[in-house]
Amino acid sequence: MKIIVLIKQVPDMEKVRFDREKGRIDRSSAGTEINPFDLNALEAALQIKEKLNASITALTMGPPQAEEALREAIARGADEGILLTDMKFGGSDVKATSCILSSAIKKMEYDLIIAGIQTVDGDTGQVGPEIAGYLGIPHISNVEVIEKYNEDSIEAVSAVWESRYLKRGNYPVLITVTKDVNSPRLPSFKNKMKARKAEIVKWSYEDISEFIEKEKIGAKGSPTKVKKIEMPPESTREGRLYSQCDEKAVMDILSVLKERKILKEA
User: Fold this and answer.
1) Labelling 52: which of 83, 86, 109, 233 has CA 20 to 30 A away?
2) Dihedral sign, CA of 208, 212, 214, 219?
3) In Å, how far are 88, 119, 130, 172 from 216, measured between CA atoms?
């Protein structure tokens, strides 16, 4: 059984700055890490690997430094890593990204693809399902529990709005997982040493060009355009403190409620 885990190297969102003129995140302004939801995806793959004879390939798209994320994935238990890196991929939105990743997957053998439900730098939740669409395979989104699996299929609980659905998919199938599906393990010292020596496979546009047209990648192949970024002002709560409930306190409260049209005057 062959499992592909999609991961992404994302900036530290608590420290990153935004380039308002270009309408993009300034990724050089903060440190990087593996997208937290993708760690849940990797852990799900590792748990399946422990019970079935499975191999795990971590796949990512990004600049050359994204190799660090793949090495961490190997340190956590993945068998190998593939990095899609090319200047031509720069500026890709979710559609172009999905197209690039799915084109790479077409070169690979796989039964199951696992991805995080979303990335913390985009929060669209679209890449996983779009990849399934490009590949022409079924997908199960918002998975919070993996009930059971075997060599032929997987069953999972999908949480949508306030409802939960038990779904089964025959391979090949793609699932996206939430943070509730598991608790990711930490890398072992042995695997850290293995990851340092691991050879990371790098594919450029030329390596996947038989599956994708140049017009469908990068900024040119991205229909999403950011026109403007605005940072909302930080909101603060206002309050008043009364030491005792007297007539003045009651009248002040009534006045505020009427002013904000929560109460109507009789």
Assistant:
1) 83
2) negative
3) 10, 22, 14, 25
Contact criterion met (CB below 8 Å) for 156 and 175: yes
Residue 124 and residue 117: Cα distance in Å, rounded?
9
pLDDT the model gives residue 231: 67
- Whole-angstrom distance, CA of residue 60 vs CA of residue 81: 8
Q: pLDDT tens for residues 30-87? A: 568 899 999 999 999 999 999 998 999 999 999 999 999 999 999 999 999 999 999 9
Radius of gyration for the alpha carbons in the chain, expressed in angstroms and rounded: 23
Contact between 83 and 198 (Cβ < 8 Å): no
* Span 87-122, pLDDT tens digits: 999 888 899 999 999 999 999 999 999 999 998 877
**Peptide bond preceding 36: is omega within 30 degrees of 0, i.e. cis?**
no
- Domains of the chain, start order: 2-216 (3.40.50.620)
Tokens representing 135 are 């590949």
DSSP codes, 169-221? EESSEEEEE-GGG--PPPPPHHHHHHHHHPPPEEE-HHHHGGG--GGGSTTTT
**CA 177 centroid distance within chain:** 9
Our measurement of the distance from residue 180's CA atom to the centroid of its chain's CA atoms, rounded to an integer in Å, reads 14
Express each pLDDT in 125-142 by its tens digit: 889 999 999 999 999 999
> Residues 138, 212, 224, 135: what is their CA dihedral angle, to the nearest 10 degrees?
0
How much of the chain exceeds pLDDT 70, in percent? 91
Report the pLDDT averaged over residues 11-24.
61
